[in-house]
């Protein structure tokens, strides 16, 4: 297990790198996802945004890290999300862009006085990856507070309440539980076997809970090696929580290096920023310690923001 201090900064940087690589091509749809692949930081194809610019995935991760630096307080968390949405806090250029509808609706509910744990949407359309994109800081926080960590009801409740600030459906609770547990287990033991055991550990927990058991079969393919080794053309990447996890774990299981996994993720197209961001973060842990490609890192915007957020977090008792 590497030091939390090095892994936290590495993980946040990885979130931003995957996000910035995928953001310009996030709506691409190609019959073969690896036709005309992207391997460099490029400018956005429709917006006037320079290469290396990250989007909401990184902004929400930074906001979450800053909030958790002062403890687990969902009112503070949502206040920071609101400041991002309205004033452009936690962005490279003081302007919030690429705000997904789920985040927007949740923040607007909070602004009107809704309790944070009730801000998340409950419709089928809210079974998306909004909560997944901001889980990395929570995983580090939980591990710091639970040195004898196990995925139990106490931990699950923390994850579910955090998720509920934007997504309040059983599928998103399960998806968040899986991803958070995987992050923590990779921090402890960076290898693919530990990653798959972490998926099973989380699903076994949800199988034991009546309110979640019926939703578990939607995630069971993540335990199947033949699914994770299938052709990329059979993947259907999108912002859906299940489709996102399918794509992320496929990229990780079919790669042996950090940059290979990230390149595969962003070149799937569709929701490339979020799938790229989550894959990049997990790959940085799975293949730790990693050396980020210099041609990616040199163009990454807002690096000082990340350094400051991590430095302050590591001075607290929460990281």
Automatic annotation (TrEMBL):
Cofactor binding: number and manner: Binds 2 magnesium ions per subunit.
Pfam families the record matches: ADP_ribosyl_GH (PF03747)
Record-linked Gene3D superfamilies: ADP-ribosylation/Crystallin J1 (1.10.4080.10)
Residues annotated as binding Mg(2+): 55-57, 273-274
Entry's Gene Ontology molecular function annotations: hydrolase activity; metal ion binding
Origin superkingdom: Bacteria
UniProt record similarity statement: Belongs to the ADP-ribosylglycohydrolase family.
Name of this chain's protein: ADP-ribosylglycohydrolase
Lineage: Bacteria, Bacillati, Bacillota, Bacilli, Lactobacillales
Encoding gene per record: draG
């Amino acid at each position: 297990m590497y030091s939390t201090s090095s892994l936290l900064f590495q993980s946040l940087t990885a979130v931003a790198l995957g996000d910035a690589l995928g953001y310009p091509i996030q709506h691409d749809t190609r019959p073969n996802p690896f036709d005309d692949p992207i391997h460099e930081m490029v400018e956005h194809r429709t917006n006037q945004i320079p290469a290396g610019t990250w989007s909401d995935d990184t902004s929400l991760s930074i906001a979450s890290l800053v909030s958790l630096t002062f403890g687990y307080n969902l009112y503070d968390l949502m206040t920071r999300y609101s400041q991002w949405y309205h004033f452009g806090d936690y962005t490279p250029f003081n302007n919030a862009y690429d705000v997904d509808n789920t985040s927007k609706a949740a923040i607007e509910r909070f602004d009107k006085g809704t309790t944070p744990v009730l801000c998340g949407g409950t419709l089928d359309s809210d079974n998306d990856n909004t909560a997944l994109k901001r889980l990395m800081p929570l995983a580090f926080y939980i591990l710091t507070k639970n040195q004898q960590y196990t995925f139990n009801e106490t931990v699950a409740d923390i994850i579910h309440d955090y998720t509920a600030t934007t997504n309040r459906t059983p599928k998103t609770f399960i998806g968040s539980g899986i991803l958070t547990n995987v992050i923590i287990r990779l921090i402890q033991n960076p290898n693919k076997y530990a990653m798959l055991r972490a998926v099973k550990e989380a699903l076994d927990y949800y199988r034991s809970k009546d309110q979640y058991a019926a939703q578990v079969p939607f995630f069971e393919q993540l335990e199947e090696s033949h699914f994770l080794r299938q052709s990329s053309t059979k993947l259907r990447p999108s912002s859906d929580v299940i489709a996102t996890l399918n794509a992320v774990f496929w990229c990780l299981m079919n790669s042996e290096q950090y940059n290979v996994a990230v390149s595969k993720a962003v070149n799937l197209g569709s929701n490339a920023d979020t799938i790229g961001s989550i894959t990049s973060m997990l790959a940085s842990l799975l293949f730790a310690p990693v050396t980020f490609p210099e041609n990616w890192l040199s163009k990454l915007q807002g690096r000082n923001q990340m350094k400051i957020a991590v430095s302050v977090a590591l001075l607290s008792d929460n990281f």
